[in-house]
Amino acid sequence: MAILKRDLQAVKKDIKALEKKLEKLLKAYEKPQRPKAARKVKRRTVKAKAKPRAVAKKTTRRKRAPQVTATEQILRIVRRSRKGVDVPTLKTKTGFQDKKVRNIIFRASKEGKIKKVGRGIYVGAK
């Protein structure tokens, strides 16, 4: 019972503190606010027209080497191997995920670019 009484007194104290804060906020809101001073408008100066510049010589840009696709990477590895390559080896050499490697192998075998020599071993088609 004593604990409940202390808790209620603490809540009462908190409510009074909140009431005082609320009164301050209401007084601040009711005060007439001063109108803000109007800003001075800056005049913009008219810029003089630019003179035509001399044309600079064009530099020749180097063409970027075309990026090798994921399929081309895997096909190169498969063609280089004599005995054949399996999926885990392709994953470690390329850094691709399992699903990506398997999809590329499936597509390449359907197109006739690689052959299946054994279970999970692939060789380049000649």
Provide a descriptive summary of the structure in words:
It is a single chain. The protein has a domain of 55 residues: Arc Repressor Mutant, subunit A. Helix content is 49%, strand content 9%. It has a 3-stranded antiparallel β-sheet. A hairpin with a 2-residue loop joins β2 and β3. α2 packs across α4. The longest helix is centred in the first third of the chain and has 29 residues. It is flat and about 90 Å long.
List descriptors.
9% strand, Arc Repressor Mutant, subunit A, 126 residues, flat, 4 helices, mainly alpha
In short:
This protein is 49% helix and 9% strand. The chain has helices at 2-30, 70-80, 87-94, 98-111, and strands at residues 85-86, 114-118, 121-124.
CATH superfamily heading of the domain at 70-124: Winged helix-like DNA-binding domain superfamily/Winged helix DNA-binding domain
The total count of strands amounts to 3
Helix content: 40-55%
Q: How is the CATH topology of the domain at 70-124 named?
A: Arc Repressor Mutant, subunit A
The span between the termini is: 93 Å
Radius of gyration: 39 Å
Residue runs with pLDDT of under 50 for 5 or more positions: none
- Tell me the overall shape: flat
Class by alpha and beta content: mainly alpha
CATH class assignment of the domain at 70-124 = Mainly Alpha
Which architecture of the domain at 70-124 per CATH? Orthogonal Bundle
**Main sheet specs:** 3 strands, antiparallel
Strand content: 5-15%
